[in-house]
Amino acid sequence: MATIAILGAGIMATALTFPLTENGHRVHLVGTHLDQDIIDSIQKTGVHPNLELKVNDGVTAYQLEDADKAFAGADVAMSGVNSFGVHFAGKHLARLVKPGMKVLSITKGMEAEEDGTLHMLPDVLKGFFDPELVEQVTWSAIVGPSIAGEVAVHHDTCVVFCGDDQESLDYLADLFRTDYYHVWTSTDFLGHEIGAATKNIYAFAAGLGQGLLIKEGKEDDKYVRYNYNAAVFAQGQKELRQFMVLLGGVPETADGLGGVGDMFVTSMGGRNVRAGEYVGQGTPFSEVRDNLMKGVTLEGVNAIRVIGGALEPLTERGVISAEDFPLCRYLYDIIENDAPLDMPWDKFFGGEK
Amino acid sequence: MATIAILGAGIMATALTFPLTENGHRVHLVGTHLDQDIIDSIQKTGVHPNLELKVNDGVTAYQLEDADKAFAGADVAMSGVNSFGVHFAGKHLARLVKPGMKVLSITKGMEAEEDGTLHMLPDVLKGFFDPELVEQVTWSAIVGPSIAGEVAVHHDTCVVFCGDDQESLDYLADLFRTDYYHVWTSTDFLGHEIGAATKNIYAFAAGLGQGLLIKEGKEDDKYVRYNYNAAVFAQGQKELRQFMVLLGGVPETADGLGGVGDMFVTSMGGRNVRAGEYVGQGTPFSEVRDNLMKGVTLEGVNAIRVIGGALEPLTERGVISAEDFPLCRYLYDIIENDAPLDMPWDKFFGGEK
Fold first, then answer.
1. Is the ipTM of this complex over 0.85?
2. pLDDT tens across B115-146, in order?
3. If you placed Cys at B254, which of A350, B12, B54, B259 could pair as Cys (CB 3.0 to 4.6 Å)?
4. Nearest 5 degrees, angle CA A108-CA A114-CA A116?
5. Taking CB atoms and an 8 Å limit, are B229 and A265 in contact across chains?
6. Mutating which of A48, A172, A178, A223 best tests the B interface, going by the most B Cβ atoms within 10 A?
7. What is the b/e burial string over A120-138, where b = at least 16 CB atoms within 10 angstroms of the residue's CB?
8. pTM of whole model > 0.90?
């Protein structure tokens, strides 16, 4: 039996406690400063209020002030926050993680330097650690098409555990594998993080066609806009693959679970898709951000801001051409400049010809 | 102004008359022996009964017995039938097509020899032609994510015109391009036909997860089975790419419109997905075929039968390994042997590890 301590008690972190506890492991779930009500609820009733499910026996919930107790002696230390919490997680985990632990992250996204150089979030996490400690633990992450609630209700889910150290990956995969939670492993750590970060960009784009349909009053018509969505998906997939090559992932990682599979599931719905729908209906993005979806976590929008924002400096430095990433550039124009819906079809797929 | 003669008056053939006529071209739409009522309806009322739309002026509908008149002097001769009609189309077009015409096919799929060797349908069409005539015309096809009705109601659609002759492709693309029908061209004829044929295999698979959800009575639940569908989609995309390499297409054609884009749109719904849903609900496929969907054209099932059926001889000949194409092999087992729903997850993505 292993002990897994998780910082962050959001729905994904909590969903992952199901396979772990069903395999007989002990989970210490530590809320952030934003999770106080969640921890309170789990401590009192066992129910995660956002997931709307009772967690299994074997999960112990801790408020942040008890984090030291929760992480003491853990075999696995998980970063369970989203991309907005990566600095928070880095600061706390740098103190909570001890030599010999296996660090496992579900925090996805990238950060950019001013010149456009992009870093995957596990590396951002590492930046908070004492350099000696960085070497005394192993680093891994979970990626792949995985809606948290579906994991929690035991629906088949296929994911990839990626990292530098195959032995740790095998150990971690073994902790999680059940008859519904299917785990593959890969040492293409960077490539899988690139896929996990960039697929969120295209989730926002996946809502635009549906928004247009709503604007036209045609959402219940016989003929909808699957052709539109498919073309956007295809261009998104092309760009995801190009990001993979540009940033140093293994090109094949753009295929399969960590690339196109994750992009597929992210395009099926959720907050980023809904934000795209509003824009498709004709709402300026600033209005979505400041009113309609004020305070809602939009990881896709954040990915567009960070990664899309890096494209201009990368172009100026000659790393990419001005014709590269036309969809990502257009999405950036939507969220930064309130660009209206006017899909640049003729720039897609290398330019219409 | 060009004259385009189309053999076959199904919904896709008819949908394509919209961009053509809106560009000022003349279309002669010739029904097959199965299309008599359609032609009758268009001749009397202008309405295509399955598409439920009135065709534009500029479309003239012909019964099969008037095909010679319809094709006389045409600039473009189109095969507008589905894969089940390829022999029919071959026999008739071999007579109707004259030197100098541009042959353009929307007939997608493959045919297999006994040893598993697969042929794309434009080559099957060619086989009916006098060898001299084969050289006196040019050969092209339309592929990409395109639901017919959406084209007909002017919803943005991105497609690829593929063929051997770039000049013909440019000419044909120019006939069709409008502000909603976006056309790219490619001389990877074989690769695009492989994508168009194999994507249908995975459309059937796209229905299985939804069927399982219905069987469980959970289709209106908060948590559905997008993770399931995404993993199936990802494995399907991996196999589509492997088919591309195996059969001699350009690997990159598995990306973009002709590969993943077309697979995406085909997975969103339609008859093949519905057939998969029945199997997901626990109905043996033979029951779907012989009762529930008797007489319904299932191109995906046909693709599984032909291409899936070729895998065993190809394995015996050592062309592929027994571990290759686990999803396609399983789908073949469903439609040929009434295999129940039991997704072979552990064989996907090179084997769970």
1. yes
2. 889 999 999 999 999 999 999 999 999 999 99
3. B259
4. 60
5. yes
6. A223
7. bbbbbbbebbeeebbeebb
8. yes
